[in-house]
Amino acid sequence: MENPTDRPDRPERPQRPARPVAGRRFYDGANRPVTPKQFRPDRRADEFDDRPARPRGRGGSDNRDDFGADNRPPRNDRGESRPPFRERREGGTDRPRYENRQAQSSSIDMLFGLRPILEALSAGRTLEKIFLLRGTKNSLVTDISTAAREAGIQVQMVPVEKLDNLTRKNHQGAVAFVSPIDYAPLDNIVSGLFEEGKVPFLLLLDRITDVRNFGAIARTAECLGVQAIVVPSRGAAQINGDALKTSAGALNILPVCREMSLHETVRFLQQSGITVVACTEKAEEAIGSADVDLSGPVAVLMGSEEDGISPDLLNLADVKLKVPMTGQIQSLNVGVAAGIMLFEVARQRVAAE
Questions:
Q1: Over 90: is that where the pLDDT of 186 sits?
Q2: Taking a C-beta distance cutoff of 8 angstroms, is the pair 279, 337 a contact?
Q3: What is the distance in angstroms between the CA of the first residue and the CA of the last residue of the chain?
């Protein structure tokens, strides 16, 4: 019987090239990763495979490398090669092409360095929050902590990773956010309202932490005639660009007071003849009750998004009201509840005039 391999009309099968070792990485002269098919030592470092890009997704190539399932460097809409998401920096370590978004969005409203932050405090500049490196002990850190405590500015001791995420510059273990507004003293506002013959209408926010909720509440408050907003120095939303945008500029018009303790603030308002009205679902009387007169000096108290008004602060309130609801959810967003409560106060004040 004739051996099939001895047939003269059968062409010789070409030898299959060796497959690349799994997990092996190839880099060109610019230290950029390339696929094994693209790797050719005799080509220039900036040359890539000019074949058209194959679509990604299911059914693509099974050869996976640094660029994904299509086995080629990513390309833009014009078919040009673009660098991968991760680029190589000096020293051989990798980092993302894009910096931390929080650091980018807050770079304008940020101070870093011990001496600049101390000088800003000495000059009376309004700071939102100060982050100091945990475990640092020197005279500048002590001076910053003392000056911030006197100004009612929150100081937080954080690890170095937190500071590195905020900025990649030489922060020296200290980063501070600059407030876009200037806080007003509450006692001056209250005394000024009485001297001008106006009826005080204030809004107290207990631990409202969502920036957009805070901005929306400020916008509603300004529209309904609130004369000042009072927030605690700790546990409150940071007033930044997002808050200003959501408030539609109301935070540039409406005074904001930052107090160390809302408990002392409530007692001060009560001693000044202002009725503190708490809006809570635990109340028995509903908004709109004929027994509650809100046309006089009033300070509306709203609680946090999670657990409402803190119990010890709720016990200090003069009046407790709830929003009447007939649905199944029985829960409202704090911004919506604040709008309903402030509208009832504004309605009674207009009716009394």
A1: yes
A2: yes
A3: 118
